[in-house]
Amino acid sequence: MASGNSAGQDSRWRVQDPGDGTMYADFFLQPEKRRRPRYKHCKQPSSLRRCGQAIVLYILIWKYLGFVYLVFGIVILAALSTMLVRSMSLATAVLALSNSFASAHGSHASEQNPSSDWATRHMQEEHHIDSFDAGSFFTLHDYDSSGAWTPDEVRKSYGMDDDSNSGVTEERKQQALREVFALFDTGNSGVITRDNWMRLISAGKRLPDLGFGPGHHGDIEYEYEIHHFEKFHGEDAKLEDLNHPEDIEHFRRHDEEEDAAERLEQLEQMAIVEANIPQKFLRRT
């Protein structure tokens, strides 16, 4: 067999003699690949350019991140400052309210009139609103949104039908309504229009205090919440704390309403309600 695989004829093969008389052939890479130096990545010219670009990119990224962190820190500081200011304002308001409630607690006497203007008193005591204008007052008490106050709406706004005025005669209530309409219904139309209201308020006319109180025109739940519970108890009140006469009366009225609702439900389930049949139609045994 021809010795075509000798080291002299093919540089890919090499014959080695380990010294013990055994010969073997070893495959190895071509000489030009063996002599190629194994430089590190960044030592070659093209790699140097890539490394430089990478370094510049890293620097830009770090600068951008630094700017982002700076902006984020400023936003956080601004938010904390706003929260601190609001907390201080809220604390001041709560302190003022607690002082006023503390002075009022323990006495269930009639509330003092904070203003000679009845409308201002009404808004403060019935709606907890201190700042308002004539237009908003009119809209708030225009219950049917018709653009005019009817006698029934004025009667409701003044709280004439509230339990606190149950002892007032109907004649006195009608007289009070005539006084209000004499001021603001100059055309005797039977209603107080928004235009007349705005014009006469600008001229200095005001709703008079007719002696019916601040104008309780909410339902029993609203009146209890705004006039008693918020002033003398608060959200953290326990059931055993609700022992004032106002609390007892409120719960009594709730019980009456629940009992009435249960009786009505029972009657609706009956096919014939004998109690509603006149006596003359009942068969006598």
Give me the secondary-structure topology.
Layout: E1 13-16, E2 24-27, H1 31-34, H2 45-104, H3 118-127, H4 134-140, E3 148-149, H5 151-157, H6 170-184, E4 192-193, H7 194-202, H8 220-232, H9 245-269
Antiparallel strand pairs: 1-2, 3-4
Written description of the protein model:
With 285 residues, the chain is mostly helical. The chain has 3 domains: 53 residues; 101 residues, Orthogonal Bundle (Recoverin, domain 1), CATH 1.10.238; 56 residues. It is 53% helix and 4% strand. The protein is built from 9 helices and 4 strands; from the N terminus they run ββααααβααβααα. The strands form 2 sheets. The protein has a two-stranded antiparallel ribbon with strand order 1-2. It is extended. It starts with 12 loop residues before the first strand and ends in a 16-residue tail after the last helix. Keywords: Membrane, Signal, Transmembrane, Transmembrane helix. One of its GO terms (cellular component) is endoplasmic reticulum-Golgi intermediate compartment.
Features:
transmembrane helix, membrane, 285 residues, disordered N terminus, two-stranded antiparallel ribbon, Recoverin, domain 1, mainly alpha
